[in-house]
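The pair is quoted verbatim as follows:
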Amino acid sequence: MKILALLHTQEDGSLPKAALEVLAAAAALKGQPGGSLAVGIIGQGAAGAADTVAGCGAERFLTVGAETVAQPRYATDTAAAAALIKESGAELVVAPGTARFARCLPGAAHRAGARLCGGGRRGAQEVRAGHRTVGAGHRRGPAAGDPL
């Protein structure tokens, strides 16, 4: 299974803790038979951030570090995420459940021909398109007011 760890940088160009946790989970998934891992990073200093995680076992690193994605914006983040998903050819995409990705992943999934599943206000988001899945974060339990 082709796996893409889709990450974004912080304002200083570093990766947030949530991104490193998602990368560790994606690397573990890669250990399954037939697994391959690519890392896609969006944001200011994306290439430098890729260098910091170069030892994660990924076969490919894809970055979008243009000035247009330095600040989180729906339109540019959505376009960048969709481009990375398409370029990677991933069947499973995992991403941290950050505010930045919570805004843009639904649009990116649509543009990549995928569908967003699961999720909720605080939970995981998963996108499936025939064979393509995009996920964000993980769910720790029901949020207040969620049906059980």
